[in-house]
Amino acid sequence: MKNILITGMLALCSMMAQAADGIVGFWTTIDDETKDAKSVVQIYEHQGKYYGRVVELLKDKTAKAKIPGSPSILGLDIIWDLEKDGDTYSGGEVLDPVKGKVYGCEIWRDGKNLIVRGKIAFLGRNQTWLPNTTFKAEGGKPTPKKPKL
């Protein structure tokens, strides 16, 4: 009986943590044109804000970002400074590494999926990212590294 109670409490704590950090985890990005899986992004929390880092490239493993210094897209933070606001995360920015452009960013859950909206003023577009349960992280929790733009 004691083991069942402990197991139940652990499951409840896990569900509460997942609800609190509903966007934290690994997400598969989808190419808008080809509809193919493009990369895996890890969304993580650091000091109350949320960030996203490309942790795996699924297509072009040597892709470079179109920003100063042309760093690899792999390992690049492409989302930074989001703050939780109810069911959405907003107030941050998202980098389109292929175009080298930065947009305002808003993220929310749609069922199991993640909706990532890049916007300039009232104009913007949404991408749907899918949960990635197969990627295994190496090392500890990331520390934000905003690229030099």
Layout of strands and helices, then pairs:
Layout (H helix, E strand, L loop, with lengths): L1 H19 L4 E6 L6 E10 L2 E9 L19 E9 L2 E9 L4 E10 L2 E8 L2 E9 L18
Antiparallel strand pairs: 1-2, 1-8, 2-3, 3-4, 4-5, 5-6, 6-7, 7-8
Description:
The chain is mainly β. The protein has a single domain, classed as Lipocalin (Beta Barrel), CATH 2.40.128. It is built from one helix and eight strands. It has one helix at 2-20, and strands at 25-30, 37-46, 49-57, 77-85, 88-96, 101-110, 113-120, 123-131. It has an eight-stranded antiparallel β-barrel. The protein starts with a helix and ends in an 18-residue tail after the last strand. Residues 1-20 have low confidence and may be disordered.
Shape type = globular
Helix segment count? 1
Instruction: Please summarize the sheet with the most strands.
Output: 8 strands, antiparallel, barrel
Mean pLDDT: 86
Q: State the distance separating the first and last CA atoms.
A: 57 Å
What is the strand arrangement across the widest sheet? 1-2-3-4-5-6-7-8
**Fraction of residues in β-strands:** over 45%
Question: Order of helices and strands, N to C?
Answer: HEEEEEEEE
Short key terms for the protein model shown above:
eight-stranded antiparallel beta barrel; mainly beta; 149 residues; Lipocalin; 1 helix; 13% helix
Task: State the gist of this model.
This protein has 149 residues and is mainly beta. It is built from one helix and eight strands.
